[in-house]
Write a structure and sequence with these properties.
Helix 6 runs parallel beside helix 10. This protein is α/β, with parallel strands linked by helices and 732 residues long. It is elongated, with a radius of gyration of 32 Å. It has a domain of 287 residues. Strands 1, 2, 3, 4, 5, 17, 18 and 19 form an 8-stranded mixed β-sheet that branches. The protein is built from 28 helices and 19 strands.
C-alpha cells in the first residue's frame, strides 16, 4: 500500500501547487454554476437549481476525467515525467490508482461548494438523499477518470489524445442533457444519446435530486459506471506506457470501445424500450413544475363559489403555496416569476365528469384511426389545451384506459389528469351492448371483456367490483336504462344485482356513477345510494321528492346537456357544435371535415320535433338546482359531435342558457366535481396545498360564461403549459 499512498500524496501536493488545476477544478466549474443559476433563474425553483447542479457536475466530471486524468497522463509521458517513475521503480497500478483517487479528492470540494452556494444564495432545499448523490458522483468521477486513463494508454501523442478526447467529450457534453435538455431534441437524437455514459450520469443525478429516487432505483447506470471502471483499470494497467517512444498498434485503440461496452448494451436496450427517453421527459416536467410563480392582481374564483376581487396566488413546487386576499405590494421576497393578471380571472382547472376517451366524437374516413392510441392520448392533450385539467372516463376499454392513466398521470405524456371508471355494469342486451354488435367479429369477445360487465347474480356482481378494485380503477359505473320506442329498447339491469354492485363499491371505497334513462331509474339509483346520477331523465320530469332524497344523500346530478344537444344537432343537420373556436383549434381537421360531410349528407328532422325533449332536460336541471342538489358537469364527449377538448365550456354555456347562474355552473365544473371524484384535497379549488392546476382567463366568467373560452394561461401541477406544443408530442 505504501507506493499507492505515497503516489496519492505526491499527486495532491502537485495539484495544490498547480494554478491551472486549481482554476479548472474550482473557479471554472463555479463560473458555470453561477452562469447557469442566473440563466435558469435558480432562485425561483429548487428543481431548477437541481438541474444547474446536475449540469455543472457533468461538465466537471467530464473535464476531470478526460482532461484532468487523460490529457495530463499523456503530457506526463510526453515530457518524460513517467520515465522517472519507471526508474524509481513504481508499477503502473499505483500511478493509475493515485490519479483516480487524487482526482476524486480534488473534485469533492467543488461538489460541496455547489450545494452550499445553491442553498445559501439561491435558497435551494437540500435533497434528503444528498449522501446518495455524493456516492453516485464519486463512482462517476472514478469511472470517467479511468476512461481518461484508457485514452492516455491508447494514443501515441498529445495530438492524438486531443482528437480522441474531443470525439468523446463533445458529444457527451452536448447530448447528455448537461447543456441542452434532451427533452427538446428529436427522438432519433435522444436515441443516439442513450449510448453515451454521460447521459446516464446526468439522468442519474437528476433522478436522485429531482425525482427523489434512491441509489437502488439507479442501480443500472451505477453498475454500468462500476463495470466501466473495472474494465478500464484492467486494460489501462495492461496497456500502460512509460515513454513516448513506446508505440501501440491501431487495433489496440479499439479497447476504448471495450470500456464503453456496458453503455453500448444499455443504449441498445433503451433504443428498443424508450424507457430513458420517457424518464427524461418526466424529469424535465418535474423540474418545470418546481418553479415559483406569483399570479398578481387576479380576480380569483376559489372554486366553491367565493370570489376574491383583487388577490394573488403563489405557486411553489407544483402546489398552491399561498392565497392572498389582497395582492402584496412587494413581490421581491417571493423570488418568483410574477404574472400580472389584472383584469383577468384565475380559477381552478375545469373538470369534465363524463367522457368516453376511446371514442372520437365524430367520424374518420380512415377506419384505422378509430383504434389509434396516439389519437386517444391526443384527446387528453386537447382537454389540457382547452383548460380542462381533469376528466373522468365513464366507460372505456379497461386495459387501454389504465395504461393511458398511468402514462398521463405519471407525466410521460402531457395531458389532462385521467380518472377511469373501467367497464360499465349492465344487463345482457342492455345499453351499451348494442354498440358491441357493430364491432368486427374479431373484436367482440375482447369488447365484452374490456368494455362491459354482465353479472348474472348479485354475488357475481360483487366479485367483479372487487376485481376492478384490485385493478385500481377510480370509480364504478352502472347502467339503468330501458330505452324507448323512439330510440330503441334495452334489457334493464336487475335491481338486486344493481344494488349489490353499488353496495360493494361503497364497501371498497370506490365512488359510483349511474346512467339513468327516466325518473324511475333515477329514483332506483338514489335508493341504492349511488354517488352521481348521469343524464337524469330524457323522457319525463323527475319528481321533487326524488330531488329531495338526492340532496339529503348528497348525490350529485350530471345532466350532460351537451350530448343531447348534439343528438338534436345531428338529426337536424346543424353543424354548430363543430363551429366553436376552441373546437376547431383542438379537433383533428380530418375528423371535423369528415363529420361535416356526414352531417351534410344525412336526413334531417325538423327542430320542433325535439323541443319537448330538450325542455325536459333543461327543466330537470333547473329543478335539481332549485332543490339544492349538488351539480357536476359532464359532456359525454366521444359521442357524435361532442369533440374532446373544450367540452365543459359548451356544457356550462348550455346550463346558463337554461337558467343556471354562472357561478353555480363554474362550481359544478371545479369544486363539486373534485369532491365527487374524492380528490377535493388535491384539485378543484384554489387553496393552500392543492395542486397548482389552474387557468387564467381574459375577463370574468361569472359575468359572461363565454369567457371560459378566452384562455390566457393553462397551468398543470405547477407547470405553465406551452399549449401550442401539446400536439407535437407524437413527432419523432
Amino acid at each position: 500500500m505504501r507506493p499507492y499512498i505515497a503516489q496519492i500524496r505526491s499527486n495532491l501536493r502537485l495539484m495544490a501547487r498547480d494554478r491551472a488545476v486549481l482554476f479548472f477544478s474550482y473557479l471554472f466549474p463555479l463560473t458555470f454554476f453561477f452562469i447557469f443559476a442566473q440563466t435558469f433563474r435558480g432562485s425561483e425553483s429548487s428543481a431548477a437549481m437541481a438541474q444547474v447542479i446536475a449540469s455543472v457536475l457533468v461538465i466537471g466530471v467530464l473535464g476531470n476525467g478526460f482532461f484532468g486524468a487523460g490529457m495530463r497522463a499523456v503530457q506526463d509521458r510526453e515530457t518524460n515525467v513517467l520515465r522517472r517513475f519507471k526508474v524509481a521503480p513504481v508499477g503502473a497500478s499505483p500511478i493509475i490508482v493515485a490519479s483516480l483517487v487524487s482526482g476524486l479528492v480534488a473534485f469533492l470540494p467543488s461538489v460541496v461548494s455547489f450545494f452550499v452556494f445553491a442553498h445559501a444564495i439561491y435558497h435551494m432545499t437540500l435533497p434528503r438523499n444528498v449522501l446518495s448523490v455524493f456516492v453516485f458522483v464519486c463512482v462517476a468521477v472514478i469511472a470517467f477518470r479511468a476512461m481518461g486513463m484508457i485514452i492516455a494508454a491508447v494514443v501515441n501523442s498529445a495530438q492524438e489524445a486531443g482528437i480522441l478526447t474531443q470525439i468523446l467529450y463533445l458529444p457527451m457534453l452536448f447530448l447528455s442533457g448537461a447543456t441542452f435538455p434532451t427533452s427538446i431534441m428529436p427522438t432519433w437524437l435522444q436515441s443516439i444519446a442513450q449510448f453515451m455514459p454521460a447521459t446516464y450520469l446526468y439522468q442519474g443525478i437528476q433522478s436522485l435530486m429531482i425525482g427523489g429516487e434512491s441509489l437502488l432505483a439507479n442501480l443500472v447506470p451505477l453498475i454500468g459506471l462500476a463495470i466501466t471502471f473495472c474494465v478500464a483499470m484492467i486494460v489501462g494497467t495492461k496497456l500502460f506506457r512509460w515513454e513516448k517512444e513506446e508505440r501501440i498498434s491501431n487495433t489496440a485503440k479499439l479497447w476504448v470501445l471495450g470500456v464503453l461496452a456496458p453503455f453500448i448494451v444499455m443504449g441498445a436496450y433503451q433504443v428498443r424500450t424508450q424507457q430513458n427517453i420517457s424518464k427524461a421527459r418526466v424529469l424535465a416536467r418535474n423540474a418545470s413544475r418546481g418553479r415559483t410563480i406569483l399570479f398578481q392582481h387576479a380576480r380569483i374564483f376559489i372554486g366553491d363559489g367565493r370570489v376574491i376581487p383583487d388577490g394573488a396566488v403563489l405557486v411553489k413546487n407544483g402546489k398552491i403555496a399561498e392565497v392572498f386576499t389582497a395582492a402584496p405590494e412587494d413581490t421581491k421576497p417571493f423570488d418568483a416569476e410574477v404574472i400580472n393578471s389584472a383584469g383577468k380571472t384565475l380559477m381552478p382547472g375545469l373538470i369534465d365528469m363524463h367522457v368516453h376517451i376511446g371514442a372520437p366524437g365524430g367520424v374518420y374516413k380512415d377506419a384505422k384511426k378509430y383504434g389509434d392510441q396516439n389519437l386517444v392520448r391526443r384527446r387528453l392533450a386537447a382537454y389540457l389545451y382547452s383548460g380542462v385539467t381533469a376528466v373522468r372516463s365513464t366507460g372505456d376499454w379497461l386495459d387501454n384506459a389504465l395504461k393511458l392513466r398511468e402514462e398521463v398521470n405519471s407525466g410521460a405524456y402531457l395531458g389532462a389528469e385521467f380518472f377511469s371508471c373501467g367497464p360499465l355494469f349492465t344487463a345482457e342486451g342492455g345499453h351499451p351492448t348494442e354498440l358491441i354488435k357493430a364491432f368486427p367479429e374479431s373484436m367482440r369477445k375482447t369488447a365484452e371483456g374490456e368494455f362491459v360487465r354482465l353479472p348474472k347474480s348479485a354475488d357475481e356482481g360483487r366479485g367483479q367490483v372487487d376485481a376492478l378494485k384490485a385493478a385500481h380503477v377510480d370509480c364504478i359505473k352502472a347502467v339503468l336504462e330501458s330505452g324507448s320506442a323512439q330510440w330503441g329498447l334495452f334489457n334493464h339491469l336487475d335491481p338486486q344485482i344493481y344494488r349489490a354492485v353499488i353496495a360493494e363499491a361503497q364497501k371498497d371505497n370506490l365512488p359510483t356513477a349511474t346512467h339513468t334513462g327516466d325518473a324511475g331509474d333515477v329514483s332506483e339509483a338514489v335508493d341504492a345510494g349511488t354517488n352521481s346520477i348521469e343524464h337524469g331523465s330524457t323522457r319525463d320530469d323527475i319528481p321533487a321528492a326524488v330531488f329531495a332524497r338526492m340532496k339529503a344523500k348528497a348525490i350529485a346530478y350530471d345532466p350532460t346537456l351537451s350530448v343531447f344537444n348534439a343528438v338534436v344537432a345531428q338529426a337536424t343537420g346543424n353543424p354548430e357544435p363543430l363551429d366553436g373556436t376552441l373546437v376547431q383549434q383542438v379537433g383533428p381537421s380530418d375528423l371535423l371535415n369528415a363529420t361535416r360531410e356526414m352531417l351534410a349528407k344525412g336526413k334531417r328532422t325538423e327542430p320542433e320535433h325535439f323541443r319537448k325533449f330538450l325542455q325536459t332536460m333543461n327543466h330537470n336541471l333547473l329543478d335539481a338546482y332549485q332543490a339544492g342538489v349538488t351539480l357536476i358537469a359532464g359532456s359525454d364527449a366521444g359521442n357524435m359531435m361532442v369533440i374532446h377538448g373544450p367540452t365543459i365550456q359548451r356544457e356550462l354555456q348550455l346550463w346558463v342558457k337554461a337558467g343556471i347562474p354562472a357561478t353555480t355552473a363554474l362550481q359544478a365544473a371545479t369544486y363539486n366535481a373534485a369532491k365527487v371524484l374524492c380528490a377535493e384535497n388535491r384539485i378543484g379549488s384554489i387553496q393552500n396545498g392543492r395542486d397548482a392546476s389552474l387557468i387564467l382567463l381574459e375577463g370574468d366568467p361569472t359575468q359572461d360564461i363565454s369567457n371560459l373560452e378566452r384562455i390566457s394561461i393553462v397551468m398543470f401541477r405547477g407547470e405553465r403549459i406551452a399549449r401550442t406544443e401539446l400536439f407535437d408530442q407524437e413527432k419523432p
